[in-house]
Specification:
179 residues, elongated, two-stranded antiparallel ribbon, 26% helix, alpha+beta
Amino acid sequence: MIEKRCIITGQLITNENDSEAHVIPSALGGRLKPLGILCKDANLKIGDKIDLPLIKAFQAVMSLLNASRDRGNNQPVKMTDNSGDEYSFQFGEPLKATKPVYSETLIDDRLHVQISASSKKEARTLLGRVRKKIPNFDVDEAMTQATTEQRWPDGMLKFGIEVGPRSVFPEQPHLSGPT
């Protein structure tokens, strides 16, 4: 019988310390999980130092492609347009502005309110601000007069892949100088 040893630590692999080695992390669609390659300690270190930064870097791409995962769902991707407005994209759903807009203007002693919200619930919550200022304001009546419109982002949408000074793949060990 051939002894199996961890390819990272050289430690003898036993039933107690054997670990499924994700060749490609599950969060990035990996399905191959061979046994007898990594011990648990090495797999944990690889997960923290290599897999996690790799997952963070490519999570947006996986969401945009609606790539399959072992478990869990792809997370929404945050994007910005040329005006700096932020949007959330979830595969199969409409693009949503992430920040509601509320503005008030006093015209001829009348309060004019403009709201931009991604849902009726959000609009109703924002109308609560008017009710605080004007106690007899009828939120339900205002909602019946609300109009729905779609606004397209200003120019191309942009998103970032976090690989760089804050998230490096693979993670570099912290070096310390002479003490």
